[in-house]
Amino acid sequence: MLLIWLMLHTITLFNDLIKNASDVDLRQRYTICSENYDDVLFALTKDKDSVTAGNFNDMKFHMSGLGLIAEQCRSTAPGSFDLRKNYEYLEVVGITLEILADYLAGKYIVI
Questions:
Q1: Integer CA distances (angstroms), 37 to 16, 49, 54, 85, 103, in order
Q2: Which of 108, 105, 106, 100 is nearest to 66 (CA)?
Q3: Is residue 38 part of a domain?
Q4: Range of the structural domain that residue 47 is part of
Q5: CA-CA distance, 6 to 13, in Å (whole number)?
Q6: Residue 110 falls within a domain, yes or no?
Q7: CA torsion, points 15, 13, 31, 2, in degrees to nearest 10?
Q8: For the chain, how many structural domains are there in total?
Q9: 109 in any annotated domain
Q10: Domain CATH for 39
Q11: What are the CB-based long-range contacts (under 8 Å, 24+) for 21-28?
């Protein structure tokens, strides 16, 4: 639930930056990032069903996408302190959930 809230908060920050950006190129970068985050948010809602069914590969795929999008947006569309903090948090969460998906799929052996 926290992840979804953070995604929605990040999209809201993008939308505020889009409205206030005077630089057309920067506004376009914020728009692309907002759309990408929206796509990942949609995928996350579908992941719940996949995880319930025992299909952890979908979650891993979407979480790797989240990490890549956060990293790309951090470098191409810098913003407020809150936005930069969200980028970092979402990168860490994406990587952590990728590892968790592999673990739940039995790809790691616990010793």
A1: 15, 20, 25, 15, 25
A2: 100
A3: yes
A4: 2-104
A5: 10
A6: no
A7: -110
A8: 1
A9: no
A10: 1.20.140.40
A11: 26/77
- From the list 79, 73, 105, the residue with the least C-alpha distance to 91 is 73
Q: How many residues does the chain have?
A: 111
- Degrees (nearest 5) of the Cα angle 12, 14, 15? 65
14 within domain boundaries: yes
pLDDT digits (tens, 9 = 90+) for 1-45: 678 888 899 999 999 999 999 999 999 999 999 998 898 888 877
Query: How far are the Cα atoms of 35, 40, 54, 93 from residue 10, in angstroms, in the given order?
Result: 11, 12, 29, 14
- Give tens-digit pLDDT for 77-109: 888 888 888 888 888 888 888 888 888 888 876
